[in-house]
Amino acid sequence: MIKHAIDDASASGAGPALLDQGVAPGPGGTRRQAERGAFENNKLHKRLCRLAGQAIGDFNMIEEGDKVMVCVSGGKDSYALLDILMTLRQRAPINFDLVAVNLDQKQPNFPEHVLPEYLSKLGVPFHIENQDTYSIVKRVIPEGKTTCSLCSRLRRGILYRVADELGATKIALGHHRDDIMETFFLNMFFGGKLKSMPPKLQSDDGRHIVIRPLAYVKEEDTTRYAEARDFPIIPCDLCGSQENLQRKQIKGMLREWDRKSPGRVDNVFSALSTVVPSHLMDRSLFDFTSLQTTGQPVAGGDTAFDEEPCATPAASEIIQLFRSLN
């Protein structure tokens, strides 16, 4: 339902008033250029709303009467998430509430005034949770080692508690399509698992539902949107932690694929929602041991001789000839 409402709003030309501002030409610019920039920004906003609405609808992320706790870190993605959800709430055919939550982990030089001032100006209910996880992480993790894993676990536990205290029924995170893809390859290359970030999941304790409404959105779009909206970005490296080198490698690999083979990354992302367990090797997902002949055709069964996705016409003809002989 949310998805259809956003499609209707996009078709009508509705867009965020804030993106229409600033049409006056900048230094060395022209009014036409400024108007063109505003037009492109509105197109971007509509695309983000459409993709977020589609993800919400596809995975039933938000329902009537939900109270959605939006985790806002001060980064571009969480700002974009909050902004888009506020737009969707105005247009959606269902009623749901939003509350923005930031966890101040007492990192050095963290500008603690930025988010309260921004959220107050935005007019959205918010809560700032103060917890000195920085000192804990620094005490436990040896100098020079990455702190992200422990920091993430501590942060997750605190946010689950805050969700209970606020009566939130959903916890919204700002992970986007690139995060999902990178996590997929990280798990496959370094963990030996076909696993990624799901758009919607139940917490380990079974008490919370976590949603990722930006699951279909590319990072390049959240970057452009943050620039267009001039969000007050807070750096994510205030803790001094080393960047995850493995994730950096995966990000570089995907960027290179996009440059050399356009469409490849899109196909991999599409494959995440087109899984055929009978053609993999996970015995917990498909009962290979009990597989017997039935004498009846099976939809999606033996496709060993089907045309390969990249087969040449000559190869296709050979396959057809082989089939005709058997």
Tell me the layout of helices and strands.
Layout: H1 2-12, H2 17-20, H3 31-58, E1 67-71, H4 76-91, E2 97-104, H5 114-122, E3 126-130, H6 133-140, H7 148-166, E4 170-172, H8 177-191, E5 200-202, E6 209-211, H9 219-229, H10 245-260, H11 264-271, H12 313-324
Parallel strand pairs: 1-2, 1-4, 2-3, 4-6
Antiparallel strand pairs: 5-6
Helix pairs in contact: 1-3, 3-4, 3-9, 4-9, 8-10
Q: Say what oligomer this is.
A: single chain
- What value does the Rg take, in angstroms? 24 Å
* CATH structural fold name of the domain at 61-270: Rossmann fold
The rounded distance between the terminal residues' Cα atoms is 50 Å
Give the proportion of residues in helices.
Answer: 40-55%
| The CATH architecture of the domain at 61-270 | 3-Layer(aba) Sandwich
In terms of structural class, how would the helical and strand content be classed? alpha/beta
The overall pLDDT, averaged over residues, is 85
Main β-sheet, spatial strand arrangement: 3-2-1-4-6-5
Give a short account of the largest sheet: 6 strands, mixed
Element-by-element helix/strand order: HHHEHEHEHHEHEEHHHH
Number of strands: 6
What do these coordinates show?
This protein is an alpha/beta fold. It has a domain at 61-270: 3-Layer(aba) Sandwich (Rossmann fold), CATH 3.40.50. It is 48% helix and 8% strand. It contains twelve helices and six strands. It has helices spanning 2-12, 17-20, 31-58, 76-91, 114-122, 133-140, 148-166, 177-191, 219-229, 245-260, 264-271, 313-324, and strands spanning 67-71, 97-104, 126-130, 170-172, 200-202, 209-211. Strands 3-2-1-4-6-5 form a six-stranded mixed sheet, with helices on both faces. Helix 3 (31-58) crosses helix 9. The protein is globular. The termini are far apart. Mean pLDDT is 85; it is low at 9-18 and 20-24.
